[in-house]
Design brief:
The protein is of the alpha+beta class. The protein folds into two domains: 114 residues, Phosphorylase Kinase, domain 1 (2-Layer Sandwich), CATH 3.30.200; 145 residues, Orthogonal Bundle (Transferase(Phosphotransferase), domain 1), CATH 1.10.510. Helix content is 41%, strand content 20%. The protein is built from ten helices and eleven strands. Strands 1-5-6-4-3-2 form a six-stranded antiparallel β-sheet, sandwiched between helices. Helix 7 crosses helix 10. The longest helix is centred in the last third of the chain and has 21 residues.
Amino acid sequence: MQLILAEPFKTLWRGKDAFAEVERLEGQVYRELEGRRTLRTEVEGRGYFVKIHRGIGWGEIVKNLLTVKAPVLGAGQEWRAIQRLHEVGVPTMTAVAYGERGANPASQHSFIITEELAPTVSLEDFSANWREQPPAPTLKRALIAEVARMAGTMHRAGVNHRDFYICHFLLHTERPVSANDLRLSLIDLHRAQTRAQTPRRWRDKDLAGLYFSALGIGLTRGDRLRFLRGYFQRPLRDILHDEARLLAWLQRKAERLSSRYARKYAPGAQA
């Protein structure tokens, strides 16, 4: 069993079964699946997000493996990713409680509690009207540079996200956002994988997801090149030569994702 508690839960749950106490937390439920529950709760006037994993069963694990998908086995994946990102300077959530009980991955009970990041707005929402109302060029360049820095640092640190979309970058809005004063945080790491080195396959999947999610916000070729230079931290000429196959694949992959998205959400399509 693993159990790590920081305040306020260290004091609130002293002498109690933390795994029972986390199940008693109440609040706004964001997701309720067979094996996972996500909710927002408040403790002592502060907001927290709670993710509880109850084990998905061997049937679901085998199904994921047969379809070459990596199953989410518990809260440990998010905990390890958060710790690694903090170590390398990628802004993300702060975990204040983590628990894992049971050696059987099919029935393991685990949870993670993170501090709410507020006030914030997702980068997807912030950029939603950029086609009609373009941002100041300096602000757009600063945001691209920071996303590139965070993405590159994350991958070089051995973490791949697996849901790497602009909606999972939160822009802090406690002060007016400007090119000289902006702060982004990366969230939703429950599917993230943490290794000594990120495999190229998983790195490329992350980049394809990010590229796809930004297709509709009016980025120019210059914007994309600026991202590549910041991400790879190499001269642009070298990147275009050395990563030509990757860049062509990203374009094809993003087009396939766009077609799949259009079919899924077309009028009359079944969910």
